Amino acid sequence: MGAARSPDIGAMPGAAQVLATKAAASMRYADFAIRAWRDDPRYVQVIAHATPAGVMRRPVAVRLGQIRRSDFEMGTDESFERAAEIGRELARILLPEPVHGMLLESIRYAAQRSDVGLRLRLCLDDELIDLPWECLYRADLPGPASAAGFYVADGDLSLVREPASLPFGPAPTERAQRALFVATLFDDGRDRWLTREEHDQLVEATAAIRDRVGFDFVAAGDATALDAALAQRYDIFHYAGHVDAAQAPAALVRVAHYDERLGIQPYCEAAPQPASWARADRLAPLLRAAGVRLAVFNACNSGHWNFMQSLMAQSIPAAIGVQGTVMNDAALAFAAALYRALAVGLSLDEAVSQGRLAVLAIALREPGVHPSKRRLWVSANDWLRFMVYMPSGDAVLFPRPETAANVKARRAARRSRAVAIESVYETIAKLNAAQRADVLSRISRSQVFILGRFDPAHKKTLDALRDALAGHALGYQPMVFDFDKPAERNLTEAVRTYALMSRFVIADISAPRCAPHELMAIVPGSPSIPVVPIIRAGEEPYAMFKDLLAYPWVLPLLTYRDDADLVARLDAAIVGPAEKRLTAVADS
Prior knowledge:
This protein has 588 residues and is an alpha/beta fold. Helices cover 35% and strands 19% of the residues. The strands form 4 sheets. Strands 6, 8, 9, 10, 13, 14 and 15 form a 7-stranded mixed β-sheet that branches. Strands 3-2-1-4-5 form a 5-stranded mixed β-sheet. A 5-stranded parallel β-sheet has the order 17-16-18-19-20, with helices on both faces. The chain is elongated, with a radius of gyration of 26 Å.
């Protein structure tokens, strides 16, 4: 690229460097808090009331008629397509403009920092809270459904329900976490839900950290043992079985009975007088008294609000339930990864992400294969079924002291998580070779958006710039907007969306056609996105261009002689200044 390489370009934190440091850093998660509620039979009001990109003062009204649960259900034999269909509609509801734009800006904010992730914190009314928001799908990704299109596939992005009403977490301790594992067995003596096997495999999966977390097994039908256990102190409550969500308040099944004549749900409570603790409103105060900081319900229907609301009313710091039905193997894989991460002091955000991607990795090994034909019974969408309720403002539920051994353990866990995430992304890319399979935070770290005229006289310059960036040492992924826009966005929205997903923007304003309008859509509200304007020698900027130079993130205009001159000056005049601006923003 010529001898004009900037002398400090090697120190710039490009895409590869930021991605590498994410694995070892001490991660913090910034809240992107969305509130949504119904105040009219025809509309839902949505507002992003606390985000890294600022706040909204007025909600957006989104048209939404009566909600039918059947419109948002995913069967165990359905593919990504069904989940993506649901996710696109949910994104229409929850992420209208300007919420969507603020989310992309916030993802950029997190992606450019080695120690920051982004947490979608949903504060929803009773009508909305049960919807499968974990399926939120990117409107900018057209074509066949891809796992990468789901927001929660992004390893740097977390999704939880409930506002942060508990601001302070516990003090760091080296004490091992005690977990009470409660299992529902059947009245015929069989363990149809394989709960004992789940317990044994969970113990085996966490054997290497036995000094940090231990599980006590109690059968839900053993009233004496369970009453004694609940009178003790536990950090984690783990239930494996089934939740009867049809009644109010919902209740755990204590002893199960199988009757195929019952149809789709052939299970019911067999105990003639179920214990009162099994009701959510009775169990919640018992868990609080026991000191439980995390309640995990590996049970169908356990994520529904008529079960979880009692736990939230008792200020349980975090609870995890299931949306609808989940396969046993998926529940086990999720829980094993979850506890391994939590035990060494990682945040719940990181641990849940690791659990989700562990389940997704299993599903991706044999895409399209029915669960009954797999070695492990995991359906395509099981990774999307885990629902997190977290009123705690501190996501490190079990902090460890800052000893050398603990820091080493956390770094090892994060490196393992990063490797697992990369493996999943590589698998996604292979399965979706025809489309861009990167997730949002990765795109925001590496994409460079190139604007200009597409007529023959100017398009070759944009292509030369794209080719030079594609081979750059910092691992850029250049994007020239010379393809069809997504059906869900008009041209202005599409341009702004792609800009917000980019590390920086290069705009060729030579003989401009659409560039003036595009820059006005991007520049005023995007202070974290450096814009590098360029122009061919002999041409003059359009009259109102000078107004954009008032924004500090619009860099000085670069005049180039020809394509070879532009490529030769790429580092010194484009990449170097853009990266310098990004570094200044990240350090501020």
